[in-house]
What we know:
By secondary structure, chain A is an alpha/beta fold. Chain A contains six helices and six strands. In chain A, strand 2, helix 3 and strand 3 form a beta-alpha-beta unit. In chain A, helix 1 runs antiparallel to helix 2. The two termini of chain A are 22 Å apart. The relative contact order of chain A is 0.20. By secondary structure, chain B is an all-beta fold. In chain B, the strands form two sheets. In chain B, strands 4, 5, 6, 8 and 9 form a five-stranded antiparallel β-sheet that branches. Chain B has a four-stranded antiparallel β-sheet with strand order 1-2-3-7, with no helix packed on it. Classes of the chains: A alpha/beta, B mainly beta. At the A-B interface, helix 1, helix 2 and helix 3 of A face strand 8 and strand 9 of B.
Amino acid sequence: xxxxxxxxxxxxxxxxxxxxxxxxxxxxxxxxxxxxxxxxxxxxxxxxxxxxxxxxxxxxxxxxxxxxxxxxxxxxxxxxxxxxxxxxxxxxxxxxxxxxxxxxxxxxxxxxxxxxxxxxxxxxxxxxxxxxxxxxxxxxxxxxxxxxxxxxxxxxxxxxxxxxxxxxxxxxxxxxxxxxxxxxxxxxxxxxx
Amino acid sequence: xxxxxxxxxxxxxxxxxxxxxxxxxxxxxxxxxxxxxxxxxxxxxxxxxxxxxxxxxxxxxxxxxxxxxxxxxxxxxxxxxxxxxxxxxxxxxxxxxxxxxxxxxxxxxxxxxxxxxxxxxx
Lengths: 193, 122
């Protein structure tokens, strides 16, 4: 499940950027990508403050979820890798919600508002299309994305009942494949604690 | 600031996830923007490095300094319509030796099954 190649590649690229004569903007971006602080496994999960939510009657907060296992899924409906993973997440939600799992989609756009990813109606349409019934937060300013140091769509953060980050990962997976089973086992492990 | 894009020339830029996709000249590049004359206009074509696919659900776009959005929507797509099966292109009115603006693209690595957003000021 761990896929270290991508972050390592990022670091290498950032280090090499100056030597390759990139334009200043791209050099700065490469450095930003490599040095952005990341939420640490084992550390308390940072408190998100998203105001716009779907599939819930109020904005969810980390303190109110204490005692529950929380799986954050950073996604956007324009990302094929993200939507291909949704059936697995829907399955987790159905299997484990009553046992103490809260699955939360953090919908983080890739492009500026003109692309339509920021529109709540479009997100609502996507939730209906993919049968998503778990809460979703609109992360239109990418603050939660940055708070957790996320780099890729889709990404996942699993938080234990005490509010600590226990597992992180990224990349598409499918019902009952190896990665699905890995996440399923992690969820069961934290639910059993 | 600005990459100098000449007619039929290829401008190479990088900003992201891949160190192994070096160009023949040794420059790591996620994407390349090629410009070519197209009648009275300029054809812009976006080429992805090996192992990368360009997200067609969120078509690449060039934001011009005047606010106009030029979308790269021309190009055959994969059967699932998720990615461009050939380099997407766009038509920029008029002839341009240099292109200015912000180029945005969502590129996806098929080995890692993730997408990454690239934004670059030209």
